[in-house]
Prior knowledge:
This protein has 345 residues and is mostly helical. The chain is built from 14 helices and 2 strands, in the order ααααααβαααααααβα. The chain has one domain (2-342): NCX, central ion-binding region (A middle domain of Talin 1), CATH 1.20.1420.
Amino acid sequence: MVRRVLFASVALAPLVVLVHYVLDLDETVEFVLSAAALVPLAWLIGEATEHAAEHTGAGIGGFLNATFGNAPELIIALLAVHQGLTDVVRGSLTGSVIGNLLLVLGFSLLFGGRGEIDRRSSFLSIGLVGLTTLLLLIPSVPSWHGDPERDEIVALSIPVSIALLVVYLVSTWYSLRRHAAMHVSSGEELAGWSLRAALGVLAIATVLTALVAEILVGTLEVFAHEAGLSEFFVAAVIVAIVGNAAEHGGAVVVAARGKIMLATEIALASSAQVGVFLIPAVVLLALFIDPIALSLRQVEIFALGASVAVTAAVLADGRSSRFKGAFLIAAYVAVAAIFFQVGDR
């Protein structure tokens, strides 16, 4: 039933694009419609990469899922860079990491209940986010005094981004090596879409995502103003949740089916992927559009560090529970409340 609704909802994307260019709708309405359209698109990208994984194996499939699962966030970030919305870019990326660590993982544990997790894999992902937070201190601390967008901070952001990408390549190689044997020994018959069909759907969904994301970013400022919210809060909470829709829904559904170990892997791996791949990718690609500095404010660094510490403490014993899920969700609500209070200051 849910899958049918999501498939039907994909039609909202071309409708939103058509309405944007044909009708003169209120920009707040367009923001809401485009945000709603991104949810089934994010799910469709996840669905397509999952079917592609049936042909490529678990390791490469997981790599494809994590990479293309972040496509909406990457597109949103680059469009925001083009429009000079630097706080929106940083806020959406920070919010994405925190959202996966606390909100997605929290709901996964809440719906999954008691079970065991893969401590080795989980703490690798948590460690990657922790390392990302530490490296982000290099350009962030100097930016707390003076102009946070000055050339000096941009220059510091480049080697930090390169270092994060190197970490991403090493960790990805390790994960692929670890999971490669799973596909070789499975011997399961392939089912579902053909590889060509999966890649075709992936391409179409990505193009639609780019068009809808452009509308979302273009109407964000007006929506934030009319809703009485800061642009930072809208980016770090609302846009981050919409951009992570694939991970949100996928992890929770998997957890509800009793596969808590896989659900935990999805949430934590997605968070790490944003930290060591998406953030540096945005910075380096922005050099061809409008250079952006990784000048995170104190509240963002604090929120990232606290999220890492809380998640590590919750998963320290290698077991899940509904109480732990509720605790992580409460922690996310607290972070969102802090972001609301701080705003664009």
